[in-house]
Design goal:
This protein is mostly helical and 399 residues long. Helix content is 78%, strand content 0%. The longest helix has 35 residues.
């Protein structure tokens, strides 16, 4: 373990691969976040999809864990880690182009289930390659290095929705999807023809009677707990703007500030969270993050003012900073013999939580209304907090 005096930023700047990964995630983040908020509008306006049917589009995210697992397994058997990153990226480019050309309601659902689910594995392969490089060149700042690279994707998700709304309004939604395909493909450019050799981890002998699924149980448990902690985000994006507009009668500009403050705070907190994880352990900080998420959901559920909602957003930024900075590293440590598999399974949890959160939100709003629907994700986050505490006591400390 190298105890370097330089900062994580210096480590990233000195490494050609880390710099390339940062730029690749920035480009991909801008493209994906530009299109994602506009997809429901595309289905309704361009294809004439009924609104209830369009809302089911995000259920296709449930295919993400299967795709993430398969791509990860193939990557863990391939010498060049970036091969499957390139394959997933090309499939994603083709998927977005096909989406732009779609003229029937069912086609986007098929494209998302098959092509875009596989394309989602590209980010996992980049983080698997980062883990290979960190294993070859250890540093006590590893969580901060991952967080610094992850910041690029967060910046992309700050810029993308603004650019996407403007571009879609000026050039049309189909042109926006073509632009997204272009950004996805352009994410290949910073990496050029670089190779990252898969790092062979020496795993202590295990009883032959244990099945592979037994080896993966800590990873699967961790991923399931993260899904519980993240379900509230879809509910928030779907219903918090409605609550602010229809019940609190907050102006458009103030609503924009409330919604936009979270990713900005998340960006600022990424390196802070990573620094704390390097000092106290990643899983402990992840547990603390879920406590912040619990408090954030309670703030949404009980607030009748802008101040309360801003507090909720600030607290929620804390849990998402933990998810972004630490989640993939913890997953890789829990399944070191297959870091690409671990990355794919963990990162697919974000898509799964989106699908589950959307379903829970729709049922919850109909049953108990706004803002009380946020008590549901508060309860789920409470379960996640307890589960993280139990998991932390049963596992070796994860740095």
């Amino acid at each position: 373990m190298l105890d370097r005096s330089e900062s994580a930023l210096q480590i990233v700047l000195r490494s050609r691969f880390y710099r390339s990964a940062f730029l690749s995630l920035l480009i991909a983040g801008i493209g994906l976040s530009a299109a994602t908020p506009q997809l429901t509008l595309f289905l309704v306006r361009e294809l004439g999809t009924p609104l209830p049917v369009a809302g089911l589009y995000y259920v296709t995210n449930l295919a993400a864990p299967v795709a993430g697992y398969l791509v990860g397994r193939w990557s863990d058997r391939t010498q060049d880690r970036l091969l499957w990153f390139r394959v997933c990226t090309v499939i994603g480019t083709a998927g977005w182009l096909a989406m732009a050309a779609a003229n029937t309601v069912w086609l986007p659902f098929v494209i998302s289930t098959v092509a875009l689910s596989i394309a989602g594995g590209s980010m996992a392969q980049l983080f698997a390659a980062c883990r290979d490089e960190l294993s070859r060149h250890p540093t006590k700042a590893e969580n901060r290095v991952v967080a610094t690279i992850r910041m690029a994707f967060t910046v992309g998700w700050i810029l993308g929705p603004v650019l996407g709304s403007w571009f879609g309004g000026v050039f049309g939604l189909r042109a926006l999807l073509v632009a997204t395909a272009t950004c996805v493909f352009a994410a290949l450019i910073p990496l050029g023809r670089q190779r990252v050799e898969r790092y062979e981890v020496v795993i202590p002998p295990r009883p032959e009677s244990r099945r592979r699924i037994d080896h993966m149980m800590p990873l699967l448990t961790f991923t399931a707990i993260c899904i519980l902690a993240m379900t509230g985000d879809t509910i928030k994006f779907g219903y918090l703007p409605i609550y602010m507009a229809e019940q609190l009668h907050i102006s458009d500009s103030v609503r924009g500030v409330v919604i936009g403050i979270q990713p900005l705070l998340e960006l600022l907190l990424l390196t802070v969270v990573a620094h704390l994880a390097d000092r106290f352990g990643a899983l402990r900080i992840m547990t603390a993050g879920t406590v912040l998420g619990l408090a954030g959901n309670l703030a949404y559920a009980t607030s009748t003012s802008v101040a309360g909602l801003l507090l909720g957003q600030a607290l929620t930024a804390g849990v998402w900073a933990c998810v972004g900075a630490l989640g993939v590293s913890i997953a890789q440590h829990l399944y070191p013999e297959g870091v690409a598999t671990a990355s794919g399974i963990y990162l697919s949890s974000i898509a799964v939580s989106s699908a589950i959160g959307g379903t829970i939100g729709g049922i919850g709003v109909a049953a108990i209304g706004l803002p009380h629907v946020f008590f549901i994700p508060a309860f789920l986050t409470t379960l996640a907090t307890v589960a993280f505490v139990v998991l932390d006591t049963r596992l070796k400390p994860i740095s």
